[in-house]
Amino acid sequence: MRDYLKELIYPKVIVEGMKYSIFNGGKRLRPVLLLMVLELLEEDTNLGLPSAVAIEMIHAYSLVHDDLPALDDDEYRRGKLTTHKKFGEAEAILVGDALLTYAFLVLSSKNNQLTSEKIVEIIKKTSIASGSCGMIGGQMVDIEYENKKADLPTLQYIHTHKTGMLLKLPVEIALIISGTVGKKQDVLLEYADLIGLAFQIKDDILDVEGEFEKLGKKIGSDQISDKSTYVSLLGLEQSKKILNEKIKKANEIIKKEFGEKGKYLIKLADFIREREK
Amino acid sequence: MRDYLKELIYPKVIVEGMKYSIFNGGKRLRPVLLLMVLELLEEDTNLGLPSAVAIEMIHAYSLVHDDLPALDDDEYRRGKLTTHKKFGEAEAILVGDALLTYAFLVLSSKNNQLTSEKIVEIIKKTSIASGSCGMIGGQMVDIEYENKKADLPTLQYIHTHKTGMLLKLPVEIALIISGTVGKKQDVLLEYADLIGLAFQIKDDILDVEGEFEKLGKKIGSDQISDKSTYVSLLGLEQSKKILNEKIKKANEIIKKEFGEKGKYLIKLADFIREREK
Predict the structure, then answer these.
(1) Do A60 and A70 touch, CB atoms closer than 8 A?
(2) What band does A6 get if pLDDT is binned at 50, 70 and 90?
(3) By CA distance, what is B139's nearest residue in A?
(4) Which of A80, A88, B202, B213 has the highest local Cβ count within 10 Å?
(5) Closest alpha carbon within chain B to A112
(6) Contact B131 A91 (CB under 8 A)
(7) Which CATH number is associated with domain B9-274?
C-alpha cells in the first residue's frame, strides 16, 4: 500500500491526510478477501494488488466522508481521531475526494499488469459497487432513515448497498482476473453475499455489546441516533442466530465446492463472526 | 447528458441532487472543447461523448464540494441555490461523491466505443487531472492560502492545478481518441494551457468587475476572504493585459497550425476573454 502512495508528495496536507486515513489500523478485510480468492483459484496474487489497493482506498474514503459532522459526526475511529478532527473539515472532504480519485488512478496505471479489457471491466464493477447504485446509495438511504423507523426490506437495502456491495467487489474482481465462471463463480458470489450480510449484522451487535477499548469508536451510537438495525428490529438473540446461520451457510458451500483448499475463506468467515472490532 | 443519467432512479434524493448539480446552466466549456478539438482533427465526435460527459460530471462534483460550508460556503451558483442549500449538507457531500464515481462508470461502460487501451489511458489522464496531483491539489493549496498572502508562483500552482488541468484534459483526451501526435499535439496542448490560464485570470477579474445578475454568484468574495488573485497581486490593468496576451497567443498558434479550420477554437478563446459569467 505504501508503495502506491510514495509518488505523492504535494500538497503536503492532502498527502498526509490520505496516509493518515489509509494507515489507521483497519482490518484490510477487502484486500485480504481478494487475494485469498485469487489464491484459491490458483491465480497469481500479484495481479490482484492494484485492485486490492484501490478497493481499500475507496473503503477509506467512504469512512472519511461518513465521519464528517454533516453525516455521522464521529470523533474517533479505531481509537484514533477521525480525519476531519485531525486535519479539519475542508481538508477531510478533499482527502476523501483524493482517495476516491486515486483509486481509479491505481487501477488504470501501468502497475496494473492485466489486459486493458479486464482493467476496464474492473473499473466498471468498482464504480457500480461504490457509486449511487451501490455504496453511496446505501449511505444515502441510511441517512434518510435516521430518527425514522426503517422496515426490514429498507434495512436490507441499506446493508446490501452500504457495506455489501463493496465487500462483494473483491470477489467479483478476483473472478474477472482469473476468468472464473460457472459453479465456482456462483458459489463464491453467494459466499460474498453471506459474509457481507453477516458483517453488517455483527456490526449492529458490536454497537450494543462491544467495548470502546477494542472497537475504538463510540458504543451505542445506533441507539442514540435511533437507527434501525438488526438488533433494534429483531432483537439481540435473533440477530445472533441469523449471524450464525449466515456464517454456517457460507462455510458449508465453500467446503462443498473447494474442500480443504477453502480453509482460508472459512477462517475469514469465522473471523467476521468472532471479531471484537 | 440526460441519456447518461436516465438509468439512475434510486435513491431519489441522490439522483435529483446529481441532476440538479449537472443541469444548472453551466457553460459546458470542457465538453464543447473536447468535441471541437475532435472536429478539428477530423475525428468522429460521437467517440468523445462519454469522455465529455465524464469531465462535466467531475467539474460539477468539484463545484458541489467547493461550495460546501467547510470550503467556500457559497449560497448561490449561476443564480440558483447551491446543492447543499437545496438538498442539505450530507446530501451534497454524497451527491458530489456520486458524480465523481459516476464519471468513471460512464468512461468504462459499454457506451464507450473506444478500444480498451484508449479507455484505460483516458481514465488514467482523468484521474491524474482531477486528483491530488491535479484539481484537488490546487483546491487544497487554495484553501491553505485563504487569509494568507500567496506569491505569484503559489498562485500559479493553484491556478494551473485547480482549473488548468481539468481544462486541458478535454484536449488531452481528444488527442488520445484521434491518436494525434507531433506538432499538432504540441500546439493544441499549448493552446489548452493558455486558455486555462486566461480562464482563471478572467475569473479573478469578474470577481471584481462582474454583476451578480449575470454571474449568478457573490461578487467580491475573493476580496472578502482576502484571497490572493491575479487582480490583488498584479492589479486590474495588468491582469487584463496578461489576459489579452494569453488569448492573442492562443489564437495565433491555432491560426498558424490549422488556418481557417481553427476558427471555432479561436471563437472559444475569444469567448473566454469576453464572457460575463
Answers:
(1) no
(2) confident
(3) A94
(4) B202
(5) B120
(6) no
(7) 1.10.600.10
pLDDT of residue B125: 98
B104–A127 C-beta distance less than 8 A? yes
Contact B14 A136 (CB under 8 A): yes
**Three cell numbers, residue A129:** 459497487
Decide which of B104 and B218 is more confident: B104
* pTM recorded for the entire structure: 0.94
Residue with cell 481499500: A56
Q: In terms of CA atoms, which chain B residue is nearest residue A15? A: B132
Contact check, Cβ <8 Å, B101/A144: no
What's the pLDDT band for B215 if we cut at 50, 70, 90? Answer: low
Give the type of residue at A243. L
The amino acid that residue B103 corresponds to is A
- Name the least confident of A186-195, A210-219, B49-58: A210-219
C-alpha cell at position B10? 434510486
Domain ranges across chain A: 2-274
Q: Would you state the pLDDT for residue A226?
A: 67
Instruction: Determine the distance in angstroms separating the CA of A126 from the nearest CA of chain B, rounded to an integer.
Output: 8
What percentage of residues in chain A have a pLDDT greater than 70?
94
CA distance A164 to A141: 14
Which chain B residues are within 8 Å of A128, Cβ to Cβ?
A: 105
Does the beta-carbon distance from B11 to A137 stay under 8 Å?
yes
Question: Which one of A88, A101, A137 has the shortest CB-CB distance to B136?
Answer: A101
CB contact under 8 A, A11 and B137: yes
- With contact defined as beta carbons under 8 Å apart, do B60 and B22 qualify? yes
Closest residue of B to A161, CA-based?
Answer: B11
Torsion sign, CA atoms B124, B133, B96, B32:
negative
As a whole number, mean pLDDT of residues A150-176 equals 94
CATH of A2-274, one of 3.90.1150.10, 1.10.600.10, 1.10.260.40, 3.30.70.330: 1.10.600.10
